[in-house]
Amino acid sequence: MNKVVKPLNKAIEYLLMILVAVMVISCVWQVLSRYVFGQASAQTEELMRYSIIWATVIGAAYVYGEKGHLAITFFADKMSRALSKVMGIFIDSIILLFSAIVLIYGGYQIVSQTMIQISPGMGLPIGYVYLALPIAGIMFILYSIQHITDTLNKEV
Description:
There is one protein chain. This protein has six helices and no strands. The protein has helices at about 1-35, 40-65, 75-80, 80-115, 125-130, 130-155. The radius of gyration is 20 Å and the shape is elongated.
C-alpha cells in the first residue's frame, strides 16, 4: 500500500503548492488590476475561490493521510492498547464509509448535476469545482485502508 500512497502524497503536495501559488498570483493580480489599472478582474476572483475550495478539500484528505488532523486523545489515553486499536479501526472504518457514501457517491451526483451550470466569470462548468469531492473521497478511502492495515499489523 505504501508504494501507492508515497507517489500519491508527492503528487498531492505538488498540486497543493500549485493551488496556493495560483491563489497568491490571482490575489496580487486582483489587487493590481483594481487599484492600479482601475478595472477589477472577475476571472481572478473566481479562480481564487475555486482554488481555495480545491486546496481545502484535497488538503483535508492529505492531512488525514499523514495523520496530521486534530485528534482528541483523552479517551484513547485511558483505554488499553487493544481497545485503543479497535477504536482506531472503527474510526477509520467510519471515515471510509462516510467517504464512499457522501464524498464519492454524493460528489458524483452533484458533479453530474452541475456540469451544465456555467460559472459567470471564467465560463467553466461548475461541476469542475465539485469534482474535488469525489477525488478527495477516493483519497480518504485509500488512506483509511492504509491506516486500518497499519493498525492491524501493529503488535498489541
